[in-house]
């Protein structure tokens, strides 16, 4: 398989991950996934401080 074939196929693939669906944006090849900010909790877990849902990266300089 050639690099161009992989790049062409990436935006057609979506899979389930612990934080939700993961996919690749065809316009810039960045990964789109549910994003969180968390902090370590005293009980060895994490506290979700902010839930951003799925947000597109802002990369105006990327020309892929």
Please state how the strands of the largest beta sheet are arranged side by side: 1-2-3
Average pLDDT figure: 84
Distance between the termini: 20 Å
Per DSSP, what share of the residues sits in E-state strands of 2 or more residues? 35-45%
Report helical residue fraction: 10-25%
Q: Low-confidence runs (pLDDT<50, min 5 residues)? A: none
Count of discrete structural domains: 1
Order of helices and strands: HEEEEE
The largest sheet, given as strand count, sense and whether it forms a barrel, is:
3 strands, antiparallel
Helix-strand makeup class: mainly beta
The radius of gyration is 15 Å
Structure characterization notes:
The chain has one domain (about 5-55). The protein has 1 helix and 5 strands; from the N terminus they run αβββββ. The protein has one helix spanning about 5-10; strands at about 15, 20-25, 30, 35-40, 45-55. It has a 3-stranded antiparallel beta sheet, with no helix packed on it.
What's the helix and strand layout?
Layout lengths: L2 H7 L4 E4 L2 E5 L6 E2 L1 E7 L5 E9 L10
Antiparallel strand pairs: 1-2, 2-3, 4-5
